[in-house]
Amino acid sequence: MNGSLEVSELLHALFLVGIVAEAMTAALAAGKREMDWLGVAMLGCVTALGGGSTRDVVLGHYPLTWVAHPYYLLLTSGAALLTIAIARYMHRLRNIFLFLDAVGLVVFTVIGCNVAIGLNLPVVIIIASGMITGCVGGVLRDILCNSIPLLFRAELYATVSILTGLLYIGGLHMQWHHDLVMAAAMIFGLTLRLLALRYGWSMPKFIYGGNIH
Question: Which ranges of the sequence are coiled-coil (predicted)?
Fold first, then answer.
């Protein structure tokens, strides 16, 4: 029991690290679009919390995470605004933020899967719930910044989320120890994402240059 409690606390701590990192990277995207400070704060909140909010709305899971825990709004908006003050140093922290973004992706995925599991939903919905939680915040950020969402590019991002979710659900289905399954799924997803960044792994692209008439 104590072991599971410690794991839950660690997962929550990683979640907080993830939303802070997402908010700070969103702030940089806002800066490239020359948004005002309110826009920076809002984009930070939307990016960090948008995936979980979208999941909860789709699944009818209430209250929304940030409604149940309002300090998440303060944490993410504060992190975004802090980025304004330290923006000149952010390029030196690029690798750290890429790592934290990867951590956030796998942690959000597992949390999203757990929400769907708690609602006794089918496996395909559980996997989708994990991917929505892990990826949609970034999609909302890119849409608001008028960019092609990372999810729709060839980069291994959504694929990492799906595979992490499949490994997690598969392990639970085999009735392996929950904490070990969760750790293995997150380590696998994190390793795959970092290797994809390091070696430029990507999904095949669809390129069509012809006319439809």
Answer: none
Q: How far is CA 161 from each of CA 23, 86, 132, rounded to the nearest angstrom?
A: 19, 30, 9
How far apart are the C-alpha atoms of 20 and 4, rounded to whole Å?
Answer: 24
Where do the domains of the chain lie? 2-199
Instruction: Please answer whether residues 123 and 169 qualify as being in contact, where contact means their C-beta atoms are separated by less than 8 angstroms.
Output: yes
Segments in the chain forming alpha helices (H)? 2-32, 37-59, 65-68, 71-86, 94-118, 123-144, 158-173, 178-199
Question: What dihedral do alpha carbons 32, 27, 187, 133 form, nearest 10°?
Answer: -100
Condensed to tens digits (0 to 9), the pLDDT of residues 92-142 reads: 888 998 899 999 999 999 999 999 999 999 999 999 999 999 999 999 999
pLDDT in tens, 30-87: 999 999 999 999 999 999 999 999 999 999 999 999 999 999 999 999 999 999 999 8
Rounded distance between C-alpha atoms, residue 28 and residue 144, angstroms:
13
Give backbone dihedrals phi and psi of 102, rounded to 5 degrees, phi first: -65, -40
Max alpha carbon distance in the chain (Å)? 65
Task: Give me the helix-helix angle, 94-118 and 158-173, nearest 10°.
Answer: 40
